[in-house]
Amino acid sequence: MKVIPDTSVLIDGRVTELVESGEFKDCEIIIHEAVLGELEYQANRGQETGMSGLEEAKKLRKLADEGFMRLTFKGDRPSLDQVQLAPGGEIDSMIRELASDEGGTLLTGDIVQAEVARAKGLDVRYLQPQEDEIEGVKEIWEYFKEDMMSVHLREGTKPRGKIGTPGNIKMDIIDDNIMTSEQLRHLSHKIVEHAKRASRGFIELDKAGATVVQLNEFRIVISHPPFSDGYEITAVKPVAKVTLDDYRLSDKLRERISEKRRGVLLAGAPGAGKSTLAQAIAEYLNARDFVVKTMEEPRDLQVPDEITQYTSLDGKLEDTADVLLLVRPDYTIFDEVRKTPHFKVFADMRLAGVGMVGVTHANRAIDALQRMIGRVELGMVPQVVDTVIFLEEAQIEKVYDITFTVKVPSGMKDEDLARPVIEVKDFESGKSEYEVYTYGEQVVVMPVEGESGKKEPVWDYAIPEIHDRLNSLIHGHFEIEVISSDRIKLFVPEKQIGSILGRNGENIDRLEQETGLKIDVQPMSQKYEFERPGKSEKVEVWDEGDKFVLEVGMDKSRENVDLLAEGEYITTVTVGGDGTIKIRKNTEIGRMIKKALKRGEVIEIRQ
Question: I need a labelling partner for 344 at 20 to 30 A (CA). Which of 383, 423, 490, 502 fits?
């Protein structure tokens, strides 16, 4: 009897099981060189599937040496192009050809490979996925006792586990034996093998140094060099099965969630219970006869069988969204919304009329909304997200209602400053807590009542904006002092005042109109007449190619001093440890010194 296994059964490890059981005793197992070439290619790229397949080939060699069966390798080694075309069936075709030439049985766990081979008249044995195949990797399952949320195995350390439920978690050492890289490598191979053969197992991701496996309710992440600095396995199991009733939501919030065409973000830190709440919402909506689907990468939500779980299609969630729009769900649960393409997919589906519930990481409730700003046009944000639910330690800490209006932002007084404003309100009380609007070219997310209770948006945001606008107008140093939420003082060198004001004040009028602020222009000397007392002294300035060197003296080493030209303040600098100040000529301050020296002005310092 001749048996020709393909890549799939070598990866899932079932060939050795059939040999050891005696079913293939005294037969000849023929492995195509193309199979080894594909496995070698995967292993060289750091893919766990490649290492698992090569491990299986080593076991078969050992069994052959012990007399269980004959093992031979035949066929031509594939080219790089053929290996890279393996997903399209190039390697499978070479294996089928060998099975035909040898008159043997093709052994495969790939249904497509099996059907093509049968169509060609080959003798095929198809190994179906096995049910609930987790016993084979009990080395990791035995750690999962009651309330064990996750197990963390890393080479050179003792196994640790997170025990408890969201909101009440602690990390403990769960085994006193230090894990070795060889143990973890062996365990990784077994996990991949069982994921390939189990009916409820699949490999979500397999790239250089990182593999993500879903096996029953367990999500397992395997990392190793070159991606990480050592072998590590993290297995996570959901321990909290809750319903929406467990969150004691108000009737108002329940009604908001169950209304069609809502955009909801569930936010919180990792481990806050976001996915658990998402599952509860999915079940709640499903029980009320909504058509509910999920978008997950990877798929790990525990939802009823009526809810279909989708992942990325050909690696693109945009393509998944296209399919979902054809399916026409009432609600889609999106776990997790992290990257810019995710936010854009979320927005596209929401604007297409699909109710969306997205899970995203954030340290504060407002941060979840800020993550959307910049990725979605500001005016569209309230149409994409109208509700933010923030969780902390598995409890709902804050719910925001997102609305859109045109008004004068809080803290500003001039009616001419009215603009579109996104209001972020406490959902239950309706009290406004944040306002989002554009200020110049900046997007401002401003607390209406911050920790200090003040409402001064200009204080934090106007100064950088005005600096940017004035840099092109003022050729020299200037400073800004905030007087009120809509008024500032602008201090400039006295000789620059005329150009800043402009003919009949046209320059300053234009600037005030652009910034929405009243600007009082004052000479720099007035600002420092009382703030900066002290006697100035002349310093020597040396031209050293690309920089100016000012000889100050060791007695002022490490001290802060004002730099002046003919008594006009330029900037404040720190004297170096050698008693000098070094200023590069290609900086704004360097150019000011160069102009002052050309005009014959005296350069001074003032402590």
Answer: 423
453 within some domain: no
pLDDT recorded at residue 106: 94
The maximal CA–CA distance of the chain, rounded, in angstroms, is: 104
% of residues, the chain, pLDDT over 90 = 19
Residues whose CB falls within 8 Å of the CB of residue 353, separated by 6 or more in sequence, listed in order: 261
CATH code at 293?
3.40.50.300
CB 437 within 8 A of CB 419: yes
Q: d(Cα 594, Cα 573) in Å, to the nearest integer?
A: 17
**How far is 168 from 395, CA to CA, in rounded Å?**
11
Tell me, yes or no, whether 75 and 156 share the same domain. Answer: no
State residue 394's pLDDT score: 78
**Could you give the C-alpha distances from 177 to 84, 125, 138, 150, 224, in angstroms and in order?**
41, 42, 16, 18, 20
CA-wise closest residue to 390 among 243, 241, 264: 264
Question: What are φ and ψ of residue 503, in 5° steps?
Answer: -65, 125
The structure tokens listed for 197 are 């053969």
pLDDT digits (tens, 9 = 90+) for 240-269: 667 787 777 888 888 888 876 789 999 988
Helix boundaries (H) for 85-200: 90-102, 111-119, 138-141, 181-197
Residue 158 inside a domain? The answer is yes
pLDDT, residue 450, reads 47
- Whether 126 and 114 have beta carbons less than 8 Å apart is answered as yes
Return the bridge partners of 407, or none: 419
Mean pLDDT across the chain:
82
Nearest to 524 by CA among 487, 588, 553, 567: 567
**Once rounded to an integer, what is the mean pLDDT over residues 130-139?**
58
- Domain ranges, residue 394: 244-447
Q: Does the pLDDT of residue 452 top 50, yes or no?
A: no
pLDDT digits (tens, 9 = 90+) for 550-562: 888 888 887 878 8
Same structural domain for residues 509 and 581? no
How far is Cα 98 from Cα 94, in angstroms, rounded to an integer?
6
d(CA 444, CA 435): 8
0.85 surpassed by pTM = no
pLDDT at residue 564 greater than cutoff 50: yes
DSSP state of 237: -
**Structure tokens of 100?**
């035909």
